[in-house]
Amino acid sequence: MSVQVLAAKMAEVELKDVPGKELTPESPLTPKATSATTPTMEPIVKTGDTSPGFLTPNTKMPQASAMKRTDPQQNGGEAFVNRDGTVAEAPRLKKIQFADQKQEFNKRPTKIGRRSLSRSISQSSTDSYGSAASYTDSSDDETSPRDKQQKNSKGNGDFCIKNIKQADFGRREIEIAEQEMPALMALRKRAQGEKPLAGAKVVGCTHITAQTAVLMETLTALGAQCRWAACNIYSTQNEVAAALAEGGFSVFAWKGESEDDFWWCIDRCVNLEGWQPNMILDDGGDLTHWIYKKYPNMFKKIKGIVEESVTGVHRLYQLSKAGKLCVPAMNVNDSVTKQKFDNLYCCRESILDGLKRTTDVMFGGKQVVVCGYGEVGKGCCAALKAMGSIVYVTEIDPICALQACMDGFRLVKLNEVIRQVDIVITCTGNKNVVVREYLDRMKNGCIVCNMGHSNTEIDVASLRTPELTWERVRSQVDHVIWPDGKRIVLLAEGRLLNLSCSTVPTFVLSITATTQALALIELYNAPEGRYKQDVYLLPKKMDEYVASLHLPTFDAHLTELSDEQAKYLGLNKNGPFKPNYYR
């Protein structure tokens, strides 16, 4: 058909605007089609869709060969030309917003309560926009849990959490975690008859997640009493805390605590009339620091400290060097099972998960600088390299630096690449790794995050100045905007990315949690004099035992040494197979 003939036919067709019409079951968005070939618009409503209530057009083309044109005389309106030459105008899309969704997305905090100024700049960090790290009921209000009086079904109120009504949901989360924590479940089954922790009163300060809940319930099955607070203000799974409270545990934590709330929760764990802890399980050293500062006399009855983070271990070594460490401490962070598995394999998977959930970034071709090439840095670099990113590494240790070079990464100073990289990741355990000078020089849209335990690696405080604007984009994601319009994307306000913004592999945490449980058992039952007031590594025999408990999951079969082979190597057939200095 020639263009002239087609134009003539089009001139004979009267295009009519689609009149406004109330939605009916027969016609979701448009009047009933008069032809089988008339394009229609249908609403697409996806389960779990978090878009702001707008329906997405699903335009059905009449035939595969139908033509679409834009008529300039119709103000850009689109029309479809069918096989027979008739023309039908595409209906005009109306944006429809549900009332409840409009209310939800216009909601802003009206009560700040005890939130610190640094967190009241933008929308509350306790809101959840689809992160699986924590379930948040849409009915959650802004009332601080400290202002609520809650009791579980047994009438016990010795806890402070977000919402006790989420307990059933949290229990299901814990049951799922149990399936991926075979060693803890095996330890619970083997040792609960002996009750090796009978009489132990454990006060803990770790991430409160489903995996931690399995550990806490295992310790209780082994005879211990537990009181718990969170070591990170963003990593608590509210539903898990509710399940623990319903189960009788004294838990003081919720997602989105202020700094004041954080220390208040730790104090509530420790300061209870008639209850004196005799074991400490810490992650980061904050609990140990608080007891040392506020209740130093408690150390007279405490048998030992178990610490799992590089930050907390560093604090313990400082106390030991100054002669101020009052009790024996077990350095779990430097145990083989923690270093080789949790720090490496956990971070190798969770770094991608955390970045994807918060920014939806594509990694292929992105330039990334990872600060620190310890086990955490190795895991992050390996994952990003596998996704096609161009990875740079900064490092102070020549040995780790050489490893980075031989693994194919370019070793640089941060100031050499800070202007060109798309993502900056810190994982050193140090302070002021990324300072304001570097933040000022970053490119527009640069993503900045931390994979180390402490929130001191990125100088977030330097960004709290009048000339910079903070804009909350989604939960745990802030745009920090400079006067010239440049912005960086700051994740979790510089705190631990994976546990603040996503989740971590449960199986790997099973290895670390089992190591913590064995360290508690060892310190609690050790005869007097075995451990002095110093920091110790977990015996290699226990490291190997933890590893062996996880092998059945893979249907793995260990080879056994013959007597002759064992004699030749100078080893016991049953281990340990590595010297104590092996890491």
Describe this structure in words.
This protein has 583 residues and is an alpha/beta fold. Among the domains are: 147-338 and 505-556, Rossmann fold, CATH 3.40.50; 344-501, Rossmann fold (3-Layer(aba) Sandwich), CATH 3.40.50.720. The chain is 33% helix and 13% strand. The chain is built from 18 helices and 18 strands. The protein has helices spanning 3-12, 99-106, 167-179, 182-191, 210-221, 238-246, 259-270, 286-294, 310-321, 336-359, 375-386, 398-406, 414-417, 436-441, 497-501, 506-525, 540-550, 563-569; strands spanning 67-70, 78-81, 87-89, 201-206, 225-230, 250-252, 279-282, 304-307, 329-331, 367-371, 390-394, 410-411, 423-426, 447-450, 469-474, 477-481, 487-491, 535-537. An eight-stranded mixed beta sheet has the order 12-11-10-13-14-17-16-15, with helices on one face. The protein is globular.
User: Radius of gyration in whole Å, from Cα?
Assistant: 29 Å
Cα separation of the termini: 79 Å
What would you say the CATH architecture of the domain at 147-338 and 505-556 is? 3-Layer(aba) Sandwich
Q: What does the largest sheet look like?
A: 8 strands, mixed
At the first level of CATH, the class of the domain at 147-338 and 505-556 is Alpha Beta
- What is the CATH topology classification name of the domain at 147-338 and 505-556? Rossmann fold
DSSP strand content: 5-15%
Contiguous runs where pLDDT drops below 50 for at least 5 residues:
5-78, 93-139
Tally the beta strands. 18
Q: What's the arrangement of strands in the largest beta sheet? A: 12-11-10-13-14-17-16-15
- Name the shape in a single word: globular
Region (Disordered): 12-159
Biased composition (Basic and acidic residues): 12-24
Protein name: Adenosylhomocysteinase like 2b
Biased composition (Low complexity): 118-128
